[in-house]
Amino acid sequence: xxxxxxxxxxxxxxxxxxxIDALLQAFTALRALPSAHPDxxxxxxxxxxxxxxxxxxxFQLAGHxxxxxYGYASKDAAGMVRDDARVAGASLAEIRTMITWCVRGERFxxxxxxxxxxxxxxxxxxxRLAELRRxxxxxxxxxxxxxxx
Length: 149
Hints:
This protein is mostly helical. 59% of the residues lie in helices and 0% in strands. Helix 2 packs antiparallel against helix 4.
């Protein structure tokens, strides 16, 4: 039996097509950067990471309540993120758990977001989210009204 792309809890968290699109757009802006850190003297001299605006904007959006899994277990989420097969077959609820782990990681490890930027874990998670967005009929882009493009 095929696994559902959506989890019943998705509705309870209010994730909409617009939420998915906004997160994917923010990720595209983040990925356009050469580095997660601005090339400034202040950033170079700081003992703590200073992130470029698109990085901060992405993680602020990813921290929105609809993307937050308040009952996640950090170790379970870390295992999910590191398992390519789990990421590739993740439901929206599992993606929410992984995004929560990514957002909260900076609280416990300075530079965590930068490490996500340097690696490909976040890319894989967001690629799966984009795939779900394309495949789920309820999230398919609406056709434009006649006469509009």
